[in-house]
Design brief:
The structure is a homodimer of 117-residue chains.
Chain A lengths: L11 H9 L4 H8 L4 E2 H7 L5 H13 L3 E6 L5 E6 L1 H4 L2 H18 L9
Antiparallel strand pairs in A: 1-3, 2-3
Chain A binds a DNA duplex (30 and 30 nucleotides) through α4.
Amino acid sequence: MPVSKKEASPCPIDAMLSVVDGRWKGTILWRLSNGPLRTSELRRSIPEMTERMLIRHLQELVRDGILVRRQESSVPPCVRYSISKYGWTLVPVLEVICTWGRNHLRRTGPACRIVSG
Amino acid sequence: MPVSKKEASPCPIDAMLSVVDGRWKGTILWRLSNGPLRTSELRRSIPEMTERMLIRHLQELVRDGILVRRQESSVPPCVRYSISKYGWTLVPVLEVICTWGRNHLRRTGPACRIVSG
DNA sequence: GTTCGTACTGACAAAGTTGTCAGTGGAGGA
DNA sequence: TCCTCCACTGACAACTTTGTCAGTACGAAC
């Protein structure tokens, strides 16, 4: 069940976009850029997102090497997601994207609720 | 008939991605970053893309203010698309995306055919 | 006078993404 | 005992995006 639509593309732009693309991936990465979070913490911090989609996106980000999944073998289970070393190379790119997007919103839409809020 | 899926989102990352997202938008922008092109020139330069999709993406990019459409009132019609002044602010962002993507492909996939080719 | 090229539109099918719902197993609380 | 929490899976419906096909108007080439 892939979440990102693109099959492997040889275009670097597509390749990059396929990593962050997905309805909630950007948001998830912003949340995690403040430090590791448990699955349920992430879910509660993005109430519009369903648990199903969260988990699907998390799995893809882990597959792409952007996130690390760490599980404490306890009951109830405790799984913590964090941005991997490789994932951190993506963060400055997201910042550039965000800067442009913020400016773009000033032309068209309302202020941001996710990043500056 | 929207091509980009996202309704207006207050998140700047989503806002930026909604502009470049779409199966062929990145490629179209790369082509046009070398100078204006006619519709048919663009179509021929990206043979995997159908004319229908090209036109839909072009219209969205014009709507978003990224491209400018200039029509010479001649027969047969001659329409030329170019990157707008505002659109040029997007190009450095695409370059950052491209750089990361190229590196990402080195971890996983083959070399690029669209940008470096 | 039939076909080609140009830049498009509309209707619709196919494919891809997201959302909904139910269910897993075991600890802990009422 | 029943219910909740935790992190997840599977089946499938709903929606979005992409692709296919036909058709428009006009002139020019053959």
